[in-house]
Write a structure and sequence with these properties.
The protein is built from nine helices and eleven strands. It is α+β, with helices and mostly antiparallel strands and about 400 residues long. The strands form three sheets. Strands 6-8-9-11-10 form a five-stranded mixed beta sheet. The protein has a four-stranded antiparallel beta sheet with strand order 1-4-3-2, covered by helices on one side. Strands 5-7 form a two-stranded antiparallel sheet. Helix 1 runs antiparallel to helix 2 and helix 4 packs parallel to helix 5. The radius of gyration is 47 Å and the shape is rod-shaped.
Length: about 400
């Protein structure tokens, strides 16, 4: 800003100095009788007030004009007329007083100060500030139009990662953003196609395996009862249960739509079913429920029910007491299943999530199973965009902590 002001003021001073130098030159070249008329015409054309004061000399005091103005006049006049110059840009109201030393006289030139000094600084500031604000507004609008498609892409990717469909998503924005959006749609299509193919294959496998198992069960039911038949029937039932568990793991939550789930109601139903099962066994084990009121989230209800039921069954299988709690924490809801059983050593907890892996410790979370319960539970939780962790419980046993986005 200051540099521009200096540049404009200097150029204005040079322009006025050129006019004054021209008048001085015309005065010196013209005959004595024509000098008045000559400088009069030039003064009128340049809108200047010019007078000749015979016998005068320049004041001895330093010119009160600004440095820029004096430098401009001195440079221009010394180059053309080579005459001493005295300038007063402050004394006369609204005028700049320019005096040039001539031979035996002083030429005095009065000129409107606006023509010698750039006084419209505030206008320049407003102009530059307005321009900056205009450019800023254009940049904000442009960036907003570019960021909005990126935000829609991020929302679509997050929703798809949580198992929700995104049928209304359409690529838009800059070329790079559209390319990323089309790549996301291609990936979504491939993942959906792979899930569909897996589901169709598992439906065929389920039919192929269940048919001979059912036939074996019928044949055993028609045979005379004996210890061998009883043992074989138990093996067939175990085989059937194992096949169902394999299919449940491979099927995941495919085909189920995410809806608004009342978590309080769901947990109450799971707890009631678990208590009835324990009462039927006469085990004496207890299950407590501690959940905040009005807990809702977007989820696939059957999948979440199977996940929590699996964890509750594991807890009651190895402990005398279990507690199911649910709390809202920030943008997530935490569901914890605590028990007072033997627990799992810290370095073995991650192993419990491996498919078909069974721990050798006294606390085997998959006792009576094939090592898929926790793997299925974690797969379901991650399919909802959450996480399942095993921690040490305050009850002395194991805590299964589910974290789900609201």
């Amino acid at each position: 800003m200051e540099r521009q002001w200096q540049t404009v003021s200097f150029r204005m001073a040079r322009g006025v100095a050129s006019q004054v130098a021209m008048i001085v030159s015309a005065y010196e070249r013209a005959p004595v009788s024509e000098r008045g008329a000559s400088i009069g015409r030039l003064a009128e054309a340049g809108q200047l007030l010019v007078s000749i004061v015979p016998g005068e000399t320049l004041p001895e005091s330093e010119s009160p004009a600004g440095d820029l103005l004096r430098q401009g006049f001195v440079r221009e006049l010394s180059g053309r007329a080579k005459r001493p110059v005295w300038i007063d840009g402050e004394t006369l109201d609204g005028y700049t007083d320019i005096r040039v030393q001539l031979d035996g006289a002083v030429m005095r030139v009065l000129i409107d100060r606006k023509r010698t000094v750039f006084t419209n600084t505030h206008i320049n500031v407003v102009w530059m500030g307005g321009t900056a604000l205009l450019l800023l507004a254009i940049a904000i609008v442009f960036l907003r139009n570019q960021i909005r498609p990126i935000e829609r892409l991020a929302d679509a990717a997050e929703a798809f990662g949580k198992g929700r469909d995104v049928p209304d998503f359409r690529p838009s924005g800059a070329t790079e953003v559209r390319r990323a959006a089309f790549a996301f749609l291609d990936m979504k299509e491939r993942v959906s196609r792979a899930i569909q193919q897996r589901t169709e294959m598992l439906a065929g496998v389920s039919h192929d395996l269940r048919t001979p198992i059912t036939r074996m069960k019928l044949q055993l039911a028609m045979m005379p009862q004996s210890p061998d038949v009883t043992d074989l029937s138990a093996d067939v039932l175990e085989l059937e249960r194992m096949v169902e568990e394999y299919l449940a793991f491979a099927r995941g939550a495919s085909g189920e739509t995410a809806v608004e789930v009342d978590l309080n109601k769901l947990l109450s139903e799971i707890a009631a079913n678990a208590r009835r099962a324990q009462d039927a066994k006469g085990s004496g084990k207890t299950l407590d429920l501690d959940a905040e009121a009005e807990l809702t989230l977007q989820a696939r209800p059957n999948a979440i029910r199977r996940c929590i039921t699996n964890l509750v069954d594991n807890a009651l299988r190895h402990a005398a007491r279990a507690v199911v709690s649910a709390r809202i924490k920030g943008e997530t809801v935490e569901i914890a299943i605590d028990d007072n059983g033997p627990g799992i050593p810290d370095h073995r907890r991650e192993e419990a999530f491996r498919p078909f892996h069974r721990l050798d410790e006294g606390r085997n979370l998959e006792a009576g199973g094939v090592g898929l319960g926790l793997a299925i539970a974690r797969d379901i939780v991650r399919g909802h965009g959450g996480e399942l962790e095993l921690q040490r419980s305050e009850l002395g046993g194991l805590k299964a902590l589910i974290t789900l986005p609201i």
